[in-house]
């Protein structure tokens, strides 16, 4: 593992351990405040925070593998493990959101049948506000590290932190409204839970974008393809460039292959040296590209 990869891995694991500790503390605090403060929406929010523990663990375990170098069985490296971890995070969030919606609908049905919901206490509101502040800060720190390490799994975990911060907003609003206006507004508790679940579903959509692109081998942008072509055109011996293709390898890395036309009378050794020169130039000037395959073709028929 290179020094850069080792540094990125350390940063990913450090910020994830920070998140795990914060989520453990917040989950316990929300469960206690939700139980003693008689707030179902805060308990639902605690479940969301608890799911963060699972995703933090997934990142900590997965990061040990996706940064491993290529080997005999995995010639393209292990980067796609990161995309799989991000998918697991999205799945966890999806299941949490569906469970929250189910419980909230059951509560609303009970209210319609005449079953009263207890009025929450002030501690529930205080803890919800603390959660918003802590999780928003954790989101910013995690996302900054994810961008620096070019980690889609850590970015997904950051999105999970943001969804937890956002989910505490309707929790705080619903609890605050019920505290201010009394029993007739207790229906806002399950309504707030549904809002929390919908916000989580939006975060699932955002999390899925990059991992799915990686797993289905979506090519890089036109800008990257144009840069590869322009770099190739700078070498006089190359007469024509075509069939430039890229594919993601995970962890912000990708591979490319292209065909170049050269003088048909060019010696094999010189053509071989030219392909190595082009490969080194492209890898040196385009960040994230770790493998380039150059196909040599004669510029015209002999």
Question: In order across it, which strands form the biggest sheet?
Answer: 1-2-3
Helix content: 55-70%
Question: How many domains make up the 3D coordinates?
Answer: 2
Query: How many extended strands?
Result: 3
Q: What order do the helices and strands come in, and which of them pair?
A:
Elements (H helix, E strand, L loop, with lengths): L2 H34 L3 H27 L13 H33 L9 H28 L2 H30 L6 H28 L6 H12 L6 E11 L2 E10 L5 H18 L3 E10 L4
Parallel strand pairs: 2-3
Antiparallel strand pairs: 1-2
In short:
By secondary structure, this protein is mainly alpha-helical. It is built from eight helices and three strands; from the N terminus they run αααααααββαβ.
Written overview of the protein:
The chain starts with a helix and ends with a strand. It is mainly α and 302 residues long. A 3-stranded mixed beta sheet has the order 1-2-3. It has 8 helices and 3 strands, in the order αααααααββαβ. It folds into 2 domains: 3-215, Up-down Bundle (Alpha-lytic protease prodomain-like), CATH 1.20.1510; 222-298, Cation efflux protein, cytoplasmic domain (Alpha-Beta Plaits, 2-Layer Sandwich), CATH 3.30.70.
Keywords, separated by commas or semicolons:
8 helices, Alpha-lytic protease prodomain-like, mainly alpha, 2 domains, three-stranded mixed beta sheet, 302 residues, Alpha-Beta Plaits
């Amino acid at each position: 593992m290179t020094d850069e990869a080792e540094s990125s891995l350390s940063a990913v694991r450090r910020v994830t351990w920070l998140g795990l500790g914060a989520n453990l503390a917040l989950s316990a605090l929300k469960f206690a405040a939700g139980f003693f403060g008689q707030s179902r929406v805060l308990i639902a929010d605690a479940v969301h925070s608890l799911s963060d523990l699972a995703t933090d663990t997934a990142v900590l375990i997965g990061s040990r593998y996706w940064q491993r170098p290529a080997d005999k069985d995995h010639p393209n490296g292990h980067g796609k493990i990161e995309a799989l971890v991000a998918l697991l995070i999205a799945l966890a969030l999806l299941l949490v959101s569906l469970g929250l919606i189910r419980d909230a609908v059951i509560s609303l049905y009970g209210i319609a049948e005449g079953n009263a919901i207890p009025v929450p206490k002030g501690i529930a509101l205080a803890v919800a506000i603390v959660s918003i502040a802590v999780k928003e800060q954790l989101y910013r720190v995690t996302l900054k590290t994810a961008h620096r390490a070019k980690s889609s799994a850590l970015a997904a975990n950051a999105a999970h932190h943001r969804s937890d911060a956002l989910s505490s907003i309707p929790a705080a609003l619903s609890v605050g409204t019920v505290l201010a206006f009394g029993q007739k507004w207790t229906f806002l508790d399950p309504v707030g839970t549904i809002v929390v679940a919908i916000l989580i579903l939006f975060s699932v959509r955002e999390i899925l974008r990059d991992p799915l692109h990686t797993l289905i081998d979506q090519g890089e942008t036109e800008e990257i393809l144009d840069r590869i072509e322009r770099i190739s055109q700078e070498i006089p011996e190359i007469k024509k460039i075509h069939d430039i293709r890229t594919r993601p390898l995970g962890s912000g890395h990708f591979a490319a292959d292209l065909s170049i036309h050269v003088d048909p009378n060019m010696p094999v050794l010189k053509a071989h040296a030219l392909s190595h020169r082009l490969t080194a130039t492209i890898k040196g000037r385009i960040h994230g590209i770790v493998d380039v395959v150059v196909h040599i073709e004669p510029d015209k028929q002999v």
